[in-house]
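Reading a protein record of the kind used here takes only a little practice. The integers have meaning only within a learned vocabulary of local backbone shapes. With that in mind, consider the following protein and its fold in token form:
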Amino acid sequence: MNKINNSKSTFIPKGFTLIELLVVISVLGILAVGLISTIDPVDKINASNDTKVLNDVGLVARAAENYAASNNGAYPTTEAILISSGNLKSAPIDPDGAGTKWTYNPTYSATAFSMTATLFSKKSLAASGGATAFAKYDSVTGKQCIVAAVGTGCP
């Protein structure tokens, strides 16, 4: 005699449903957007560029001070003079390569000079207290600082 098996087999799904996958992907996307906005990679790049600019301003300032010490207090009137005299190996290059950030400002008939360069990070803008920020070296005060305007002296 044949026995009939009336028990139903149970089907256990293995894996995730499409809705579960979409929910997880959505949550991960929201977390990624939050993380990227917190890190602010553009400002991190600007901050690293600002560090290079500040270092370059200091390098040119030291080279100009060395030149003045060797030339009876007369400062160079161009970066080319600093390079040809051997006080500066090469002219600073913009971190972004655009060539528009640097300005070299000899003043007072080569008895003093100042050098400024534009800064872009949020930290630099906050330090200047304005909408723009410049790294500046002023030979009159002998200081390097961050200012809001090119004509502003270092405190």
User: Anything to note?
Assistant: Helices lie at 18-39, 41-70, 79-84, 122-128. Strands lie at 102-107, 112-119, 133-138, 143-147.
